[in-house]
Amino acid sequence: MFVNKGQDFQNILQVRQNLQRKTKKTTPSKWENRLADAALRQAAEGGYLISPSRAFLLERCQTAGKPSLKDIEYIHLSHFHIRTLGHIQSCRHLRVCILNNNYLTRFSALENCPYLVRLDLHSNQITKLPDENFWREMKSLRILNLHDNGIGKLEDIQSLCVCVNLVVLTLYDTPLSLKANYRHHTVNSIWSLKALDHHVIGDEEIIEDSLFSKRFTAMNPKLFVDLCPKQNEALNDRTLQSEMKTVRKILSDINRILVHGSPVVVIQRWVRGHLSRKALG
């Protein structure tokens, strides 16, 4: 009998998408988790999911003149049906890693990549984050995209508090983001954060019992920022330099918004200006 493997995989994808739509609204049940695991296991057994090999990474990551995985600094492998990190964990000098829209369930092996500046894992199958030991090593990490995953526990956010230079975090479209105190808990657990999901963090969210005008309220439209921007370049044309340019733009946009959207920053700027003028006589 002829078996349409392409159609089989489309059926598996449909199961995954149906579960994703449901788990964005609620924490997945044990039955739903088992169903998702079974679908992914079937896909893996059918050869539809991959684990990046050394040869695959060297070919895909434009490593001309760089024959070693440890020399790779930039990986962009979205929509590649990746199930496990494979040899990505050997890319010790990785700085930008974009693995969105795959089938990853865990990524703790990236602890071998302490120079990461941006890590994009949105739209995967992640339900649990690594512990503090993992995040403590990520001293260079500035941007972390985790939206559209199955993360549902506030305890996972607590482990991120030791990621001391993390500025940007996205967790929208997760069961966790539906919890009533999600944003308050996240903002006050990760002190280095300047932007969460679609908005720059306002002073009202940080300073307890503060009363500011409507202009400075939490998630005011003027505090909106795009933390996962689409790029104009074709995938094959993107480089570490262009990705780092995107990182700098995101951070610059946040700082620009804070200059006018944070009462504390506005007051500090006014005081510095006053003291400078006074010093000049």
UniProtKB/TrEMBL annotation:
<protein>
    <recommendedName>
        <fullName>Leucine-rich repeat and IQ domain-containing protein 3</fullName>
    </recommendedName>
</protein>
<dbReference type="InterPro" id="IPR001611">
    <property type="entry name" value="Leu-rich_rpt"/>
</dbReference>
<dbReference type="Pfam" id="PF14580">
    <property type="entry name" value="LRR_9"/>
</dbReference>
<dbReference type="InterPro" id="IPR032675">
    <property type="entry name" value="LRR_dom_sf"/>
</dbReference>
<dbReference type="InterPro" id="IPR000048">
    <property type="entry name" value="IQ_motif_EF-hand-BS"/>
</dbReference>
<dbReference type="Pfam" id="PF00612">
    <property type="entry name" value="IQ"/>
</dbReference>
<dbReference type="InterPro" id="IPR052859">
    <property type="entry name" value="LRR-IQ_domain_protein"/>
</dbReference>
